[in-house]
Amino acid sequence: MAALLAEARAQGVPRLDAEVLLASLSREPRAQLIAFPEKPIDTLTAAMFHAGLERLRAGEPLAYVTGLREFWSLPLVVAPAVLVPRPETELLVELCLARYTEAPRRVADLGTGSGAIALALAKERPAWWIVATDASADALQVAQINRQRLKLNNVELRQGSWCNALGGEPFDAILSNPPYVAPGHPALATLRHEPVEALVAPDEGYADLFAVAAGARARLKPGGLLLLEHGPEQAGRLARELALLGYTAIDCHQDFAALDRVTAANWPSA
User: Model's pTM, two decimal places?
Assistant: First the structure.
């Protein structure tokens, strides 16, 4: 095993990525591999490890290579049909949980992808009913796999574009991590393996943020909560749009890197 990890380092693959890849392939805890570096690795596993290294060197995300990504301590299946869940997106979950207790609620996660946000909420609040939507049938298949693996039966999956998938039903909270990268943004070069339709939005990245905010007005209960993830430079314009749409108590929250990441807003009480 030590020789394989040394080879990965020589190829410029970060040690942590190589260890996680090898642990996934050998079905051993990473700590076990570290504790016993002399443990032999069979030929098939070594061959798969070398193939995985090639994919990592080509820039493919580790989560796609292993097929798994942890989010909110949940092991999620991921595939190229969905974005790799990011730690900063957990802020959406934190803010929603801080707002509402265990009492029954109806919450929507728009653009659910792998189901990360919806499933994290469902795990923490078994009495809630979570509606998770996505325009992509392939993405919903990934979310369905994760829902089944985690046995979280308080999540309903629906296909549709943003709030259109919600019909006229009222919700206590609507959350979304929509596409918010502007077309041509330099960051897209490092994200080329992830689905562009889940990353890029017209109008300098604001189109889907504004669409969710506009549609949510007719679906939020009086006093309901809207939570939107966005880019660090988008908080100001988004806040102004939310105010024009009639939202109140508009507040931006920073992620663990102290970057503006999630804006919360209330739909006014009756």
Answer: 0.88
